[in-house]
Amino acid sequence: MAIRKPMVAGNWKMNGSKELVQQLSDAINNVKSDQIDVVVFPPYPLLPMLTATGITTGAQTVSENESGAFTGEVDAQLIKDLGCQYTLVGHSERRSIYGESNDTVAAKFARAQQVGLTPILCVGESEEQREQGQTELVVAAQIDAVIDKLGLAALKDSVIAYEPVWAIGTGKTASPEQAQHVHKFIRDKIATISSDLAQGLTILYGGSVNEKNSELLFAQPDIDGGLIGGASLKADLFTAICESAKGTV
């Protein structure tokens, strides 16, 4: 079985400032180690500041287009040129607020990989979909959109983040057992085609992860770390989550 390095990714969303970069950069650099990958996803204007401190960075989204008359959009190549290594694609807020379809997310995934960024593909179900027993159908469709466009091999150079929509920013969190069930479903789905790829694939959990629940979540066999929202804006909380990820190694 492949050994997967844990990852803790902090999604700042539309938060942050020069002062916050200064407050968090030392703490983040101090918690980094060879044991885990730590990545921060700030708003676009703060990317150069964070990258300059030696922190691994990523964009919260990228355009599926290479260039052109797309006011307000940012191309993946520019993100790469800024020193970023990652980008999120398909975060639930991009899907629900900005109407990004599975096909659009797959196109963003493709563009990210084209320029050498590692996409973190966000998947997850709404509360209504969960109550209707559609979790696996929804998650499978979101993953299949990428596989259908690019082939299964594209997942080798990517990360998947399972983020139940009903648990994002609500204070609700899937139990470790609930989260593990979906993570195992994702890994088993991919394993039906390639066991090696499935075992090597990093799958993160996102959904109100904090310093109190991270240890139990990360202890699950198919959860390889977390995509952290609000807690990534506070140095003590974020570093505590990182330390809990180190404890799984």
Automatic annotation (TrEMBL):
<feature type="binding site">
    <location>
        <begin position="229"/>
        <end position="230"/>
    </location>
    <ligand>
        <name>substrate</name>
    </ligand>
</feature>
<dbReference type="GO" id="GO:0005829">
    <property type="term" value="C:cytosol"/>
</dbReference>
<comment type="pathway">
    <text>Carbohydrate metabolism; erythritol degradation.</text>
</comment>
<feature type="binding site">
    <location>
        <position position="208"/>
    </location>
    <ligand>
        <name>substrate</name>
    </ligand>
</feature>
<keyword id="KW-0312">Gluconeogenesis</keyword>
<dbReference type="GO" id="GO:0006094">
    <property type="term" value="P:gluconeogenesis"/>
</dbReference>
<dbReference type="InterPro" id="IPR013785">
    <property type="entry name" value="Aldolase_TIM"/>
</dbReference>
<dbReference type="InterPro" id="IPR035990">
    <property type="entry name" value="TIM_sf"/>
</dbReference>
<dbReference type="GO" id="GO:0004807">
    <property type="term" value="F:triose-phosphate isomerase activity"/>
</dbReference>
<dbReference type="GO" id="GO:0046166">
    <property type="term" value="P:glyceraldehyde-3-phosphate biosynthetic process"/>
</dbReference>
<comment type="pathway">
    <text>Carbohydrate degradation; glycolysis; D-glyceraldehyde 3-phosphate from glycerone phosphate: step 1/1.</text>
</comment>
<comment type="similarity">
    <text>Belongs to the triosephosphate isomerase family.</text>
</comment>
<dbReference type="GO" id="GO:0019563">
    <property type="term" value="P:glycerol catabolic process"/>
</dbReference>
<protein>
    <recommendedName>
        <fullName>Triosephosphate isomerase</fullName>
        <ecNumber>5.3.1.1</ecNumber>
    </recommendedName>
</protein>
<dbReference type="Pfam" id="PF00121">
    <property type="entry name" value="TIM"/>
</dbReference>
<dbReference type="InterPro" id="IPR020861">
    <property type="entry name" value="Triosephosphate_isomerase_AS"/>
</dbReference>
<dbReference type="InterPro" id="IPR000652">
    <property type="entry name" value="Triosephosphate_isomerase"/>
</dbReference>
<keyword id="KW-0963">Cytoplasm</keyword>
<dbReference type="InterPro" id="IPR022896">
    <property type="entry name" value="TrioseP_Isoase_bac/euk"/>
</dbReference>
<dbReference type="GO" id="GO:0006096">
    <property type="term" value="P:glycolytic process"/>
</dbReference>
<feature type="active site" description="Electrophile">
    <location>
        <position position="91"/>
    </location>
</feature>
<keyword id="KW-0413">Isomerase</keyword>
<keyword id="KW-0324">Glycolysis</keyword>
<comment type="subunit">
    <text>Homodimer.</text>
</comment>
<feature type="binding site">
    <location>
        <position position="169"/>
    </location>
    <ligand>
        <name>substrate</name>
    </ligand>
</feature>
<comment type="function">
    <text>Involved in the gluconeogenesis. Catalyzes stereospecifically the conversion of dihydroxyacetone phosphate (DHAP) to D-glyceraldehyde-3-phosphate (G3P).</text>
</comment>
<feature type="binding site">
    <location>
        <begin position="11"/>
        <end position="13"/>
    </location>
    <ligand>
        <name>substrate</name>
    </ligand>
</feature>
<feature type="active site" description="Proton acceptor">
    <location>
        <position position="163"/>
    </location>
</feature>
